[in-house]
Prior knowledge:
By secondary structure, the protein is mostly helical. The chain folds into 2 domains: 10-45, no CATH class; 52-108. Helices cover 71% and strands 0% of the residues. The radius of gyration is 26 Å and the shape is elongated. It comes from Faecalibacterium intestinale. This is Mobilization protein.
Amino acid sequence: MSDRRDQQLHFRVSKPELERIRNKMESSGILSIGSYLRKMALDGYCLHLDLPQLRRMAYLLQMCSNNLNQYAKVANENGRVYAADMEDLRARLDELISIGKQILSRLAEL
Length: 110
């Protein structure tokens, strides 16, 4: 592989984008913008996380929160809760824990 850098790339950025690039460059300790851009283009990476489990988890969290508030209200009014309600809430929480573990394992693979 030749070490000669005889090829050029040109692209335009806005002023705010240039400022962000320079700030990131300075925080990484690289003094040359060309060196920084080359390093990021060759060794950097961008992440696009599409985790449908997050949507399911957010939905279940909302449902559990709503149900828990209703159970607390009933418990305060009647002084008791129903076992079936508690089992339903427990099943949803178990599913949330499972989804959370799946998400963490997928993130650990990155």
